[in-house]
Amino acid sequence: DLAFETTTSAPRVPAAVTTLVAPALPRHEPDPVLGPYVGAGGGALTSPGELGAAATPWLRVGWGLSRRFGLRLDVAAAFSRDLRGPAADVEVRQQLALASAVFAWRPGARLVPTTTVGLGAYHVDANARARTPWVGRSDSLWAVAALVGAGLAVRVSSHVAVSAELAAILSAPGAAVVAAGETIARAGRPAVLGTLGVSWGF
Predict the structure, then answer these.
(1) Which of 45, 111, 159, 177 has the fewest CB neighbours in a 10 Å radius?
(2) Model-level pTM?
(3) CA 176, CA 182: separation in Å to the nearest integer?
(4) What is the pLDDT of residues 129-153, one digit of tens each?
(5) Which residues on neighbouring strands pair with residue 124, listed in sequence order?
């Protein structure tokens, strides 16, 4: 009589062959729009009708959470503005630090519209140069700032993007520049920030 033995176990594959057919690791694709990326640029911070516009360089770091959502941190410092009052000339400097959430409407496309919502800190520093008989002094104010903006990013390459954005910034409490009892300017109620810059994804 002949006896047959059956088995359900899989055939043994040599270790060398197993290594060759192992699944490939996912490839990382840089994203200069949502991140991770670093960016820099310039713009203008404007308080309509009072404080006026000031040139504003900025730095940015971004980190993507998904194909459509990302987080970013912005730091900006507006160049000083000289205001002329009845009793003093006042030099005003402004700084911003904001953490924001970014939504990309067309992820992966060459032209990517974005919407941004952020929260952070707004700082105003004023230094008065008084005319006789007044005495000038310096003062500063910290405020909470909220940002809502819309922008457009253009992918120049897989690593580089150029972006433009326009945002409204509302701060509380509001800042007022007062000289000899007279308010000569108000800031941040609201302010408008327009930016243009370049980002590099890695």
Answers:
(1) 111
(2) 0.80
(3) 10
(4) 888 888 888 889 999 999 999 999 9
(5) 94, 141
| Predicted confidence (pLDDT) per residue in 85-126, tens digit | 888 888 899 999 999 999 999 988 999 999 999 999 999 998
Residues in the chain: 202
Cis status, amide bond into 173, omega within 30 of 0:
yes
29-62, pLDDT tens digit by residue?
889 999 999 999 999 999 876 678 899 999 999 9
Supply the DSSP string of the chain, one letter for each residue. Answer: --------SPPP--HHHHHHTSPPPPPP---TTTSSEEEEEEEEEEETTTTEEEE--EEEEEEESSSSEEEEEEEEEEEEEEEE-SSEEEEEEEEEEEEEEEEESSTTSSEEEEEEEEEEEEEEEEEEEEPTT----EEEEEEEEEEEEEEEEEESSSSEEEEEEEEEEEEESPEEEEETTEEEEEESSSEEEEEEEEEEE-
Q: Which two tokens stand for residue 36?
A: 């991770």
Q: What backbone phi and psi angles, to 5 degrees, belong to 81? A: -120, 140
- The residue assigned the tokens 């911070």 is 45
